[in-house]
Specification:
The structure is a single chain. The protein is an all-alpha fold. The chain is built from 14 helices and no strands. The N terminus and C terminus are likely disordered.
């Protein structure tokens, strides 16, 4: 049971940080008004404040117990940045630009919601901090839901997380379904929420916030490589095609930044590639840093004992 609680807390925190009712943008914004198209959604703002309050509660509780090693700036900074990234993706002019004008802007919004924000949030709550985020009665109530325990137990297996992520990525980039989401608010909400949930699943495997040890370091490095390879296999043949596949953007009469539909589609592929390489590249650098440090110690002959690298 204790191994499942951190995951239950993380799932609850995700729903607080990104409530579904605020995911869809339904008002067309003239191109001339895009710069000022900030939409301070009450649900997103309320969820962000609540998520930060819960994080602060757990953070301070651990520090009062003298466990500053599990509640330091390496936890607070990623978490706060994760909340900020998610909020900006949903409320900044990027939302309107992606919905109404550019596929590349929409792709940037998707990778922020489904990759960068989940990575930062999971990194922020790693370790014992997950057990201190929610009040004990809430944790006990969640732990008592058998169907939720079984669902999370299945989804948090490395293969299940990977398949769920791959299916989510592939399905929502089928042009027909992608365009349908732009015209149906409920489907748009589902699209963004599923990207966020899938991102939480795979980053929980990579960072292993609850230290479930399903994958060792080598396994996590291979897992990260498989994510990049799968994205290229599923998405890039469409995005790098010689013809425009997404009618909603191809038929847009206002060509923002002067990008043709085909150029916009190619830029979308570049946005996805660069974001993945930067995010997963930073992850790999953090994973391998302890090993390079031990190698340097051995070569220099320093008698200092080697300590295992830990997140």
């Amino acid at each position: 049971m204790r191994r499942l609680l951190p995951s239950l807390v993380l799932a609850g925190l995700a729903s607080l940080a990104a409530p579904g009712s605020a995911f869809a943008h339904t008002t067309d914004v003239p191109a001339s008004d895009l710069v000022g198209a900030w939409t301070p959604e009450p649900a997103v703002l309320a969820g962000s404040v609540l998520a930060i309050a819960l994080f602060g509660r757990g953070f301070l509780a651990l520090r009062r117990r003298g466990r500053r090693d599990h509640a330091g700036w390496t936890h607070a900074v990623p978490f706060l940045f994760g909340v900020a990234v998610l909020g900006l993706a949903l409320m900044s002019p990027l939302d309107a630009a992606g919905d109404d004008y550019l596929l590349s802007a929409h792709m940037l919004q998707h990778v922020l919601i489904g990759d960068l924000a989940p990575a930062l949030l999971v990194l922020g709550v790693r370790g014992p901090l997950t057990l201190f985020l929610l009040p004990t009665p809430v944790l006990r109530r969640l732990a008592g839901l058998g169907w939720l325990r079984r669902l999370l137990s299945f989804l948090l297996r490395p293969k299940a997380s990977f398949v769920a992520w791959a299916l989510t990525l592939g399905a929502w980039h089928v042009p027909t379904l992608y365009d349908a989401a732009l015209t149906r608010p409920w489907l748009h909400e589902l699209e963004h929420a599923s990207f966020f949930a899938a991102g939480l699943l795979v980053w929980s495997q990579l960072i292993d916030p609850a230290r479930r040890a399903e994958l060792d370091i080598r396994g996590r490095i291979l897992y990260a490589g498989a994510l990049v390879a799968t994205a290229h296999l599923f998405i890039h043949p469409v995005l790098l095609s010689a013809r425009a596949f997404y009618p909603a953007y191809a038929a847009q009469p206002h060509r923002l930044l002067g990008l043709s539909p085909l150029s916009d589609q190619h830029w979308a592929a570049l946005v996805m590639t660069v974001e993945q390489l930067l995010t997963l590249g930073a992850f790999l650098a953090l994973m391998l840093r302890p090993r390079f440090g031990r190698l340097f110690v051995r070569r220099s002959g320093d008698p200092t004992p080697e300590l295992p690298g830990r997140w």
